[in-house]
Amino acid sequence: MELSILSCMACLIVTPIIIHLLASRKKPNLPPGPRSLPIIGNLLDIGDKPHKYLADLAKIYGPIASLKLGQVNAIVLSSPETIRQVLETHDHVLSTRAIPDGARVLDHDKLGTLWVAPVSPIWKNVRKLFKSQLFSPKSLEANESIRRAKIEDLLSSVRQSAVKGEVVDVGAAAFTAVLNMMSCSIWSMDLADTNSEMVKQFKSRFGGVMEAFGKTNVSDFFPVVKKFDIQGVRRRNSVRLREMFDLIDEMIDGRLKMQESLDFTPKFDALHHLLNLDEEKNGEFLLDRNQIRHLILDLFVAGTDTSATIIQWAMAYLLQNPKVMSKAKEELNQIIGRGNAIIEESQIEKLPYLQAIIKETLRLQSSLLLPRKSQSQVTISGYTIPKGTQIIVNLWALGRDSNIWEQPNCFMPERFFGDLNTKGRDFGFIPFGSGRRICPGKPLGVRVVHLIVGSLVHWFDWKLEDGVTPENLNMDDKFKLTLEMAQPLRAIPLF
């Protein structure tokens, strides 16, 4: 009896002490952020426009804020100062991607070198390959005729619509043109041949892959359920990627067979470079077939949707701002000449207003950089960021920061006529990222966007559909792999 009383007294004394000690343990000095619900964290707050919710978060908690995405700890950065610390100061420990669970199929999370693969010797070598061969000035110049031919195809198609007075889905036309440019540049397959079974299969399978990568997946927010694949995302993605890889294999086998022929004429496209790396002669590393498959897929995914989306937004802003459209057309007439002249890529540098239009579009319609993940604990702006935290850079908020931009919500290309550095070193404007993860395809993407927008403006006058005016044009956005227009831009070309 006495022992029981003593035990109870000991518990009454010790328990509060333990509770006090646990409560007084030093907690990490995390950035401020909204209160989160048990289990789901802040997921319900984010909604279908995370870029806007996170921008509002910055207005309340400042340029660095923390939140819970289900079981995942995350911080959001919205100022040049905080972003610089991630992309430059601590780039060596914060360069790993937060890999979506849907990408962990067929080893794409290891071999998909453009956007999800970890920093590794293979990753570094592929980046060197992009810089020295695939996207080098020499390589781009060698393939200029391919892009010119696809521009001519685009203009011919739009001209037919102009003659008939038909409405053009600008986004769809841009996507087709960019995809065709990428296909011709990567493996010399012309997607304009709509009767080709190979072309039909490619478009269908590529569309399936793009849809698969854009799906929201509960496993990304609750890692504990990853192994169950409860939405079947990995299962479906495996099927779609395998179908795409089968087609890529057909292209590789066809090219290897052609190269065995005595009268074979080399096609100096990306596939040619990848299949003919010479380790002994040039000190290059070699890629096996599986690595080439993943690399080609990444080239298509990264190079098509982003460029097409920016082209559509640029045309929408021009239709919404007729004076800007008129000024762009005047510049093009002065440099390119009136009539049906095709823009030469060497002329882009002589078109500063067109360049400013594209930069202003990127400022307004970039969304979030692909998330990173901290490999170790790090300090940012005095706050402790624990290992495993997801790092989100909100470019949409950055582009609308009144501390950086005058009248940030206005479309004003003239703002880029000063000395603003747009090469990734000024962290107020980094649409292509910065540091070791900067977009390797930027040299090609920039050319393609300028060529298509410049050509559409130079060749045609444009008007909106009946009932739509610059004032009521729907400029709402939709958050997917890129920040798309919620309603496709439809306009009538006049020739």
Automatic annotation (TrEMBL):
Q: Which UniProt keywords apply?
A: Heme, Iron, Metal-binding, Monooxygenase, Oxidoreductase
**The protein's required cofactors:** heme
Q: Name one Pfam family in it.
A: p450
What PROSITE patterns does UniProt report for this protein, alphabetically? CYTOCHROME_P450
Q: Where does heme bind?
A: 439
Recorded GO MF terms: heme binding; iron ion binding; monooxygenase activity; oxidoreductase activity, acting on paired donors, with incorporation or reduction of molecular oxygen
Q: This protein is called what? A: Geraniol 8-hydroxylase-like
**Organism per entry:** Cucumis melo var. makuwa
